[in-house]
From TrEMBL:
<keyword id="KW-0325">Glycoprotein</keyword>
<comment type="similarity">
    <text>Belongs to the SKN1/KRE6 family.</text>
</comment>
<feature type="transmembrane region" description="Helical">
    <location>
        <begin position="269"/>
        <end position="292"/>
    </location>
</feature>
<dbReference type="InterPro" id="IPR013320">
    <property type="entry name" value="ConA-like_dom_sf"/>
</dbReference>
<dbReference type="GO" id="GO:0005789">
    <property type="term" value="C:endoplasmic reticulum membrane"/>
</dbReference>
<keyword id="KW-1133">Transmembrane helix</keyword>
<keyword id="KW-0812">Transmembrane</keyword>
<keyword id="KW-0961">Cell wall biogenesis/degradation</keyword>
<dbReference type="Pfam" id="PF03935">
    <property type="entry name" value="SKN1_KRE6_Sbg1"/>
</dbReference>
<dbReference type="GO" id="GO:0015926">
    <property type="term" value="F:glucosidase activity"/>
</dbReference>
<dbReference type="GO" id="GO:0006078">
    <property type="term" value="P:(1-&gt;6)-beta-D-glucan biosynthetic process"/>
</dbReference>
<dbReference type="GO" id="GO:0031505">
    <property type="term" value="P:fungal-type cell wall organization"/>
</dbReference>
<protein>
    <recommendedName>
        <fullName>GH16 domain-containing protein</fullName>
    </recommendedName>
</protein>
<keyword id="KW-0735">Signal-anchor</keyword>
<feature type="region of interest" description="Disordered">
    <location>
        <begin position="1"/>
        <end position="135"/>
    </location>
</feature>
<feature type="domain" description="GH16">
    <location>
        <begin position="338"/>
        <end position="733"/>
    </location>
</feature>
<feature type="compositionally biased region" description="Polar residues">
    <location>
        <begin position="60"/>
        <end position="85"/>
    </location>
</feature>
Length: 765
């Protein structure tokens, strides 16, 4: 706690010097004797501005007179201008000149503290001189401190700084040398080793005692580890102005014009260039790059749209053995193609079947599923069992076994022997896989590479097929195909009615009788139950959408169906067709011009004489096959496929083009299945090239409704091999998924789960 002493400037009594160390107290003009001598001489300053130091006291007086041995501060009567640290102006006319102990040749602070060490005798440290209370500074001391011998209007300032380690004079240094190196005196110390020391304020109005403001040196302190404190130093602006100017002084002189030569501002140019570069970089990053990315990824984004297996950013869940839509094994050269229409196509789905041992039971594969049913709609004589479908040697293998086969292991995937009782009462067991409600596409090109079953091209009885059907019908589930297959119609007229007859059942005449029909259908044009989801549907009716005024159905386009050539004694052919409903009279289609129907390879392709029956109208071509693409003769894989384009906004440009072995075979357009109005017509309107999302079906069947079965030409186990399945679509116009916005199917299927999950249901409920 600081102690404020009386304003009479009575310094505290000085401590007694240590024994045998009285000589260390140097003669100083600040001793009281100097004050007395100076006053006796009239207080006139010398020419040098300082009085001569008095003789030091003898050692005999060191212990008896604390007054004569006590160093005191001196004051100056030089002209003095008040400052923030010395606000009281000097009185040069009334105060005698006193030697200023703070004067120095250079008043700037140094690295050492300016102070004098006083050796205190521990044995006399408790004595205090009571006569000190009557002493005070000379009258001039109340006027402030100044520089001796310096006139003018400038004053010095007494400042303080933190004492450094160098400010503690080593014990080996004498008091005289310490005092000689310094022009400042330390504050007087109280006897008894007290840690309180008195200081004089720069205002000259009072004495304030502060704890540890002027710390003892480690040698003189009662506590060798005394902390550092503040030490005073004198700053004189006049001395600073007389010093050599610093290098940076011209920066603060407003009159200075500078001494640098005019140079080109390269730094400024570079700064502006960097700013422009940063702005351009930010624009590229946040404006140009997003726009570029959008246009570059437009095709990818359109491919993502409608795909239920990935999210809007193209991310798919990482599941166990979850293959991509495009098989990584698909060669790069096969990932694009030029279409028959001259358009560029890109791959959107492929399966190369390179992994051996795959199974296709429900839930085994994300895209394919093998069915477990009897395909009664076509009167087949085999049971479709998932065990008959697997992969081997880079191909999908569908095996047909016979109950007459008694030897096991004839082929790696044969399940024979078995009895008809073990096979649902049927003699033959085969397989069918389909992508129903898992993968669908709308418009594009699909291609398969196959080896047909049988010993050679004369095999007669198998019904291998690769085909597509609208997702609203599930192949083999009759309740889902009833009223859906093979409708591709968006008109509200008699074509949507059962049997294509009027409400009264009395017409039109073409629907009541057709010579091209069959006796089992009473030669009636149609036995269909009517279009279930027609454009005539009433609001709120059971309709898949998107509106009740949109005609919906499940059309069929066949990649191929293979059979023995009925028009020749030898050879094999494939039928490539599209099924439509409702029907024109006598199942006729327009084929007078190439923009309706066209055959590209007449040497191997011909129109199919079969144009339909009471359950379908077919537009079909027959294409001859090479003899080396069979299981027992050559096993040469042959490509078969079709390309089609459906556009509800421009029906005139829609078409289907088939190919075999890489060569176009024939083409049908929407003009071939146009309206059948007028006299003799069935009264139907335009049928459409299928616009529905189409699923893929691969199967190996056998039915007398397909062709006459000659077991002598067949072999069991028979294997139908598919090397790959690839689907392409026009570049930038990807449309895959079984639930597209324009032709949704999901809600309708979910609302009729029993029909889509039970093969025994015959009617949709």
């Amino acid at each position: 706690m600081a102690a404020v002493v009386r304003d009479e400037y009575n310094d505290p009594p000085s401590p007694s010097p240590r024994q045998n160390e009285g000589a260390r107290l140097l003669q100083s003009p600040s001793l009281p004797a100097a004050f007395q001598q100076q006053q006796q001489q009239g207080g006139q300053p010398g020419s040098s501005g300082q009085s001569a130091p008095s003789s030091p006291p003898s050692s005999n007086h060191a212990h008896t007179s604390s007054l004569s041995g006590r160093p005191t501060r001196t004051a100056s009567t030089a002209s003095f201008i008040s400052s923030p640290l010395n606000p009281t102006p000097a009185s040069p006319t009334s105060a005698p000149h006193v030697i200023n102990p703070f004067a120095s040749a250079r008043s700037r602070p140094t690295s050492r503290a300016s102070h004098m060490e006083l050796g205190l005798s521990h044995s006399h440290s408790h004595h205090r001189d009571t006569t000190m209370s009557s002493l005070g500074p000379p009258p001039s001391f109340t006027s402030g401190l100044g520089m001796a011998g310096m006139g003018g209007a400038r004053g010095s300032m007494l400042l303080y700084r933190l004492a450094s380690e160098d400010d503690h004079t080593p014990a080996s240094m004498s008091a005289a040398s310490s005092l000689r190196d310094s022009h400042l005196l330390p504050p007087p110390k109280f006897p008894g080793g007290a840690n309180r020391e008195s200081t004089i304020s720069s205002s000259g109005s009072s004495f304030v005692s502060l704890d540890s403001k002027y710390p003892l040196t480690n040698r003189d302190s009662a506590f060798p580890t005394a902390p550092r404190g503040l030490v005073p130093y004198e700053y004189d602006p006049a001395m600073d102005e007389m010093a050599t100017p610093d290098d940076e002084d011209f920066l603060h002189d407003p009159k200075t014009t500078g001494f640098r030569k005019s140079t080109f501002p390269w730094r400024g140019v570079m700064n502006v260039a960097v700013l422009i570069f940063l702005i351009l970089a930010l624009l590229c990053l946040f404006v140009f790059y997003p726009v570029l990315t959008f246009y570059r990824n437009e095709a990818r984004n359109s491919r993502i749209d409608g795909n239920i297996r990935i999210n809007a950013t193209g991310q798919a869940p990482v599941l166990f053995q979850m293959p991509d839509l495009i098989d990584l094994a698909t060669p790069d050269a096969a990932r694009t193609r030029t279409g028959f229409d001259g358009q560029q196509y890109e791959l959107v789905f492929s399966d190369e079947f390179t992994e051996d041992g795959r199974t296709f039971y429900p839930g085994d594969d994300p895209y394919w599923e093998a069915v477990d049913l009897w395909y009664g709609a076509t009167g087949d004589i085999e049971w479709y069992d998932p065990s008959q479908v697997t992969t081997r040697n880079g191909s999908l293998v569908i095996t047909m076994d016979s109950a007459d086969t008694l030897q096991s292991g004839l082929t790696p995937n044969s399940t024979a022997p078995f009895t008809p009782d073990q096979n649902h009462g049927l003699n033959y067991r085969s397989g069918m896989v389909q992508t129903w409600n898992k993968f669908c596409f709308s418009s594009g090109y699909i291609e398969v590479s196959v080896v047909l079953p049988g010993p050679n091209e004369d095999a007669q009885g198998y019904w291998p097929g690769a085909w597509t059907m609208g997702n609203l019908a599930r192949p083999g589930y009759p309740a889902t195909t009833d009223g859906m297959w093979p409708y591709t119609y968006n008109e509200c007229d008699v074509g949507t009615f059962p049997n294509q007859t009027n409400r009264d059942g009395l017409g039109p005449a073409a629907a009541l009788h057709s010579d091209q029909s069959r006796a089992k259908y009473n030669y009636e044009l149609s036995w269909l139950s009517g279009q279930r989801a027609s454009a005539c549907s009433c609001p709120g009716s059971d309709h898949p959408g998107p509106t009740v005024k949109q005609g919906r159905g499940a059309p069929e386009i066949d990649i191929f169906e293979a059979e023995r050539d009925k028009a020749a004694t030898t050879g094999h052919v494939v039928s490539q067709s599209a099924q439509f409903a409702p029907f024109t009279h006598d199942y006729l289609y327009n084929n007078a011009t190439n923009d309706q129907w066209q055959i590209f390879s007449p040497n191997v392709t011909r129109p199919n004489n079969y144009r339909g029956s009471a359950v379908q109208q077919a537009v079909s071509g027959i294409v001859q096959l090479r003899p080396d693409m069979f299981q027992g003769s050559g096993k040469r894989f042959t490509t078969v496929g079709f390309e089609y384009w459906a556009n509800p906004n421009n029906i005139a440009e829609t078409y289907i083009t088939w190919q075999v072995d890489g060569v176009q075979s024939h083409q049908v357009t929407a003009a071939a299945v146009g309206p059948d109005q007028g006299a003799g017509g069935s009264g139907v309107g335009q049928r459409r090239i299928p616009e529905e999302p189409m699923s893929i079906i691969l199967n190996l069947g056998m039915s007398p409704n397909w062709q006459t079965i000659d077991l002598s030409t067949l072999m069991f186990p028979a294997e139908f091999l598919i090397d790959y399945v690839r689907v392409y679509q026009r570049k930038g116009q990807t449309n895959i998924g079984c639930n597209p916005k324009a032709f949704p199917t999901e809600d309708y299927i979910n609302n009729h789960k029993e029909a889509y999950q039970s093969t025994s249901s015959l009617l949709l409920v």
